[in-house]
Amino acid sequence: MKIACLIASALAKRRFDDDKVVSFDNLTVSQIHTLKTFDRVMNFDFWSPESVDELVPGGTADIHVSQFYANELEDAFRAADFEYKLTIQNLQEQIDIETMFSRNHGKAHDLLQYNDYDTIKSYSQSFAGYFTYGSSFEGRDLFGVKIGTGSKVISVDCGIHAREWISPAYCQWFMNEAKNGQFNQYLSDVTFIVMPSINPDGYAYTWNSDRMWRKNRATGYGGCVGVDLNRNYDANHAGEGASPNPCSNTYHGPSAFSEPEAKAQQIAMQPYIDDGNLKAFLTVHSYGQYLIFPYSYDYASQAPNKAELQEVGDEMAAAIREVHQQSYLPGQDILYVCSGVSSDWAYDAMLSAGNSGPLAYTFELRDEGRFGFLLPAEQIQLTCEEIDAAMHKIINYVIENK
Ligand code: ARG
Ligand code: ZN
Q1: Which listed ligand is nearest to 228 at the C-alpha?
Q2: Which of 26, 41, 44, 101 is deepest in the core (most CB within 10 A)?
Q3: Which atom of ligand 1 is nearest to the CA of 48?
Q4: Could you give the CA distance from residue 158 to residue 124 in angstroms, rounded to a whole number?
């Protein structure tokens, strides 16, 4: 009986009944201390920032708390006059709503819903420039599409973090606009390399087992599953803002590029880096509405073309705002230090190859915390429309200046 239950629960989807997401503003040093103490017992799932170590004084936090600890935690907060907001009352309810209204369940590909890995892959295969560049830990194809004939290359990747579903949704939207729509006009000047789902095992796992999964699904690192792919790149790997603990959501892995998904992206992109054609490296995440440029691994190190990165970031943010009046904050040091991120790797690799003004950004899409990773599909189009405005800016900038 016991074994049957164990097997049943291993196959079942993880549930989040009555789990909460609590949010904080303007954290003080003592509040951060309190959260760290609770985290040791309650093992929070950090939504923003990504781990307890990334909490900063004056900053914000969104934390997913298991229902088992919710009451205890709220009592403690009240006793300490620790202000918080209950952003999500019942996480499972939000996931159920998403499952009913936002997921495309095995129907034809739909740009206005969240598509699963197989659907994203078959959609991508309908593009002439479809290519594979390796296999994931569990053996899924890593793939992309190459669109355009121009000599200047812009790469856009999505889905490095499994639960950030709006990210692959944007890549699919972008691919369509490049082939059939508003970005078509650039194809003689630019070649787009779009990788819409660079962590396929993690993504499939969020569909089938645990909606809140972030990492890849690698095993063999001691007890826990998964490496945070966006801590696994060769940019001060294993430095500040990445965890040596395989059970952490920000585990950096045993060595830089230990993970097949990260290594394959490096190998796929290296030729475009070495020949100097890669001009911009854009990696799409959610959420928080930021446009982050290097360096993330050390806020004291300044990118040689920091002023340019800031200027293009400002222009992208202004263009985004005009579309649906959303604020996206551009900058280097707007979140927290973290090491091993892909945009820092790509930036440094382009620099070493002789490109004196590489462009590299981490886009954090919608929203600002209301739904977090569970952004309703009705916001896919709105989000994509505003990010398109940023894309026009950076594409034009590349064509005119790079
Ligand atoms: N949310 C992203 C991650 O955790 C951000 C990385 C970019 N840089 C930074 N300073 N946070 O991977
Ligand atoms: Zn992310």
Answers
A1: 1
A2: 44
A3: 1
A4: 13
